[in-house]
Write a structure and sequence with these properties.
Ribosome-recycling factor, chloroplastic; RRF_sf; alpha+beta; 44% helix
């Protein structure tokens, strides 16, 4: 008896999936979801996986991508107004002239404290007296007068300061010998020697040069202030050049003033080569 068979049914063999590892699970979760880019997309410091059977390979690489967009600067930059710039320029110019005027006053004061052929109360301007433990200027605690062309009279407001005043005069470099009678101090100006006159001429010249150096330093500081405004974009390079040129003219003017008072001081020093005694 013949037997009938049904058509052969094909059986598909399915290769078993490799067991999931930590990396494969991580890969699956990375590549799932609408908000996550593909694992092999171009980015910085990306991870890529390749798997075969039970083998998983991790590759770390730095693939250049587009740099992150720079954040826009926040804040407001306000340019200086013309009025503000002019105000700063005027302030610098005013400061320069004030400082140069003070320099001239200092030079004059120094010159007046130097002995000449005639008595002058300003000769004692630089003397400081220890008054109740505090150094004070002699002219602030005493009245100074010139009885004649060759002497000075110091009358203190407080007679208890007579000894302190006498000590201060002796300690000064004026070369004067005080005469204290218990009421006032008299100073007689001895005739200057030729050597002393030469020494004083050198002192005067040195003080004049110190005044000029001070004026130059004031000019230098002012130029630095102008250059600072240029860096802040408040002045142009041409502006700075013009202002520096004007500043040089002011500097030259004060240099001439120092030369003028220097020559005047030299004239009042006794000239022993001609037998003169100098003018007051």
């Amino acid at each position: 008896m013949a037997m009938s068979f049904s058509p052969a049914t094909s059986v598909r063999y399915t290769k078993p999936s490799p067991p999931k590892t930590l990396l494969s699970s991580l890969r699956d979760s990375c590549c799932r979801g609408p908000t996550v880019a593909k694992c092999n997309s171009t980015s910085s410091n990306v991870l890529s996986w390749s798997s075969a059977e039970n083998y998983v390979k991790l590759k770390v690489g730095s693939i250049a991508g587009k740099p992150p967009a720079a954040k826009p600067l926040t804040g407001i930059l306000r340019c200086a107004t013309i009025e503000e710039i002019e105000a700063e320029k005027s302030l610098i110019e005013k400061s320069v002239k004030e400082k140069m005027e003070k320099t001239i006053d200092t030079v004059r004061s120094n010159f007046n404290s130097i002995r000449t052929g005639r008595s002058n109360p300003a000769m004692l301007d630089k003397i400081e007296v220890e008054y109740y433990g505090t150094p004070v200027s002699l002219k602030s605690i005493a009245q100074i007068s010139t009885p004649d062309s060759s002497s000075l009279l110091v009358q203190p407001y407080d007679k208890s300061s007579l000894k302190a005043i006498e000590k201060a005069i002796v300690s000064s470099n004026l070369g004067l010998t005080p005469n204290n009678d218990g009421e006032v101090i008299r100073l007689s100006l001895p005739q200057l020697t030729s050597d002393r006159r030469k020494e004083l001429s050198k002192v005067v010249a040195k003080q004049a040069e110190e005044g000029k150096v001070a004026v130059r330093n004031i000019r230098r500081d002012a130029i630095k202030s102008y250059e600072k405004l240029e860096k802040e974009k408040k002045l142009s390079e041409d502006n700075v050049k013009d202002l520096s040129s004007d500043l040089q003219k002011v500097t030259d003017e004060y240099m001439k003033k120092i030369d003028s008072i220097f020559k005047q001081k030299e004239k009042v020093l006794p000239d022993f080569t001609t037998g003169g005694t100098g003018n007051p």
